[in-house]
Amino acid sequence: MSHTAHIRSHRKPRRSASTIAMRAGVAGGVLSTLAVAGASGSANAAEPVTQTLELPTLTADVATQVAQSADATQLAAANYELQAERDAAAANAAKQAKADLAEAKKKAAEAKKKAEEAARKEAAARASRAAARTTLSASVGSTGASVSTSTSSATGSAATVLAFAKAQIGKSYVLGASGPNAWDCSGLVQAAFKQVGIDLPRVSQDQSTAGTQVSLSNLQPGDILYWGSAGSGAYHVAIYAGDGMFVGAQNPSTGIVEKPLSYDPPTGAVRVL
Description:
CATH topology of the domain at 146-271: endopeptidase fold (from Nostoc punctiforme)
Largest sheet: 6 strands, antiparallel
Mean pLDDT: 78
CATH class of the domain at 146-271: Alpha Beta
Number of helices: 5
Distance between the termini: 205 Å
Number of strands: 8
Strand order of the largest sheet: 3-8-4-5-6-7
CATH architecture of the domain at 146-271: Alpha-Beta Complex
């Protein structure tokens, strides 16, 4: 036996022809598959790929919702605009109300001031009349010389004037009235003297200076008596009737009356007859 008989050979064992043929067939199939795949890949690379995106289509319900949302938005905008107009109107109304209130307060203050001034003047006039009444009554009571109390009767024009004036006794006193059913003081005096063709002014202030001033101690029937100061200060007139009496439209509570001079002593007198 050779000394190398048990040494394994380093040569690779020979493959059989069938094995080699099978492997060659497999390899050929793989290569052909890769070739087909490569050709297919080249073909796909040569043609661009187009991708189609399908957008959602608005259905009837969605369209209705969109329309309703638009309407709601428009309505909300209209409501905001209307509210803004109302707020502006309210602000203007408040501003106007504030201005009106200020104007009303101003007018009220002016009216109050005028009323207080008129009240002061009236109080002063009453005080003046009261003082004159006290003085005249005292004079008449003591001597009877301050005022004429003659018993002479009116004659001529004076009688006509007094007849008309006395015919009005019992009628009403109404400020500004000129008859025939109501009179104020100067309206009665003017109408009485018109009976004898004498055209006197309409108001007391002018009638108190229409004739010649005479003293109260020298009165004659038909003289015009006045209260207050002659001219702009005169506030009442009447007609002296003789015997210490006068006829006149006194006030709303008494109407047209005949009273003694001591009832309401006059300040002065004028003579036009």
